[in-house]
Amino acid sequence: DRPKPPVGKKIKRTAKEKLLDSDLWAARIESLRREPDGAFWAKVRWYTIPEETAAGRQPHNLRRELYRTNALGDIEMESIVRHCFVMSPKEYRDATNDGDDVFYCEYEYDVHWHNFKRLADIDDEPETKEDPSDEPYNAANDYNSDTDEDSEYDEEDEPAARCSARKNQSNEKILAANSWKGRIYGLQKIGIRKIPEHVRCHQKTALEKAKATLLLATLPKSLPCRDKEMEEISTFVKDAICNDHCLGRCLYIHGVPGTGKTMSVLAVMRRLRSEFDSGALRPYCFIEINGLKLASPENIYKVIYEQLSGHRVGWKKALHYLTEHFSDGKKIGKQANQPIVLLIDELDLLLTRNQS
Predict the structure, then answer these.
(1) What is the pLDDT of residues 162-175, one digit of tens each?
(2) Which of 36, 111, 174, 297 has the fewest beta carbons closer than 10 A?
(3) Is the separation of the CB atoms in 184 and 172 below 8 Å?
(4) Domain ranges in the chain?
(5) Rounded distance, CA 316 to CA 258, Å?
(6) Count of alpha carbons within 13 angstroms of residue 63, beta-carbon side
(7) Are the CB atoms for 107 and 94 separated by under 8 Å?
(8) Is 255 strand, coil or helix?
(9) Gap between the Cα atoms of 264 and 226, Å rounded
């Protein structure tokens, strides 16, 4: 414990202590922009402390642990106090002397569906590969590569005039490349890449458009002929969420592959999330599990408990905690009366010869 301050004096809290007491907030800067009035703004992704999640602070939470959220916001640059470090588990373990503003983050918290996902699993998702010939673009090179014959001014007669003109043109080119809805980014050359000529000029033929549309990885903009099914799913989920005395309900959706079963359910859940944001629905937790991603059927207990609590344990211990949660009435954190919607895709993969 700290010693008591002298009479009439107060102990000054550090920025770290204010953050952990919810008096300050941490965020990751996603992008910067400048408004027409000259004010600089930043689009940020917020971090949250365990106390502000639906699960609350658990015994496994570290004192400096934060959760990255999917909540974005726009803040003015003048409201930023200073820089802090939010590290992965490995970086946090190897940190030595990085100051007091060092925090630990392993999970992302969904502020709408109140579940947790490991950042390592999110960051490992495949990304679109870049063209190796797609080199970083420098707008000034467009002018430096001009030949003497293409120059507007003669080098011997007016060298200063040519340099001044090119400098102004180069600045205009860079600022235009960083415009965002009529606004200018505060930092120059952010994310500028030269688009290859064959990509910029190529127009897809009707056959290429049809081929891209029929790929299994292509998601349609809308689900045709699924309005009736989606309405039934929505009614079922709403009744289960709004019923205070619901002891658990189950809806089994079957059909041949590729008919839009999973997509219909996810579309309904996105619609319900917008209703929750508007205050029309009570808070609930949504957990999505794909049987193809489970190394063994028993791991489903571990995945469910991890998404509920933000803590990874073995499947046997997770089964014990889940049994206490659902059977013995021992709730996880602050989720005392919060319904849980569980979506299990590829359910047949959970069936084994020795069913546990």
Answers:
(1) 333 333 444 443 34
(2) 36
(3) no
(4) 15-111, 141-184, 227-350
(5) 34
(6) 6
(7) no
(8) coil
(9) 7
Helices and strands (DSSP H and E) totals, the chain = 11, 10
And the tokens for 69?
């959220």
328: its two tokens = 């013995």
Q: Phi then psi for 127, rounded to 5 degrees?
A: -115, 165
Strand-pair partners of 285: 340
Phi-psi region of 79 (alpha: psi -120 to 50; beta: other; left: phi over 0): alpha
**CB 61 within 8 Å of CB 109:** no
15-111 belongs to CATH 3.40.50.2300: no
The span from the CA of 240 to the CA of 253, in Å, is 16
Residue 128, Cβ neighbours under 10 Å: how many? 4
Predicted confidence (pLDDT) per residue in 203-223, tens digit? 788 998 888 888 877 777 777
**Are the CB atoms for 285 and 113 separated by under 8 Å?**
yes
Q: What is the C-alpha to C-alpha distance for residues 205 and 219, in angstroms, rounded to an integer? A: 20
- Whether residue 53 contacts residue 311, with contact meaning beta carbons closer than 8 Å, is answered with no
DSSP state at residue 132: T
Q: What is the mean pLDDT of the chain?
A: 77
27 phi and psi, to 5 degrees?
-150, 155
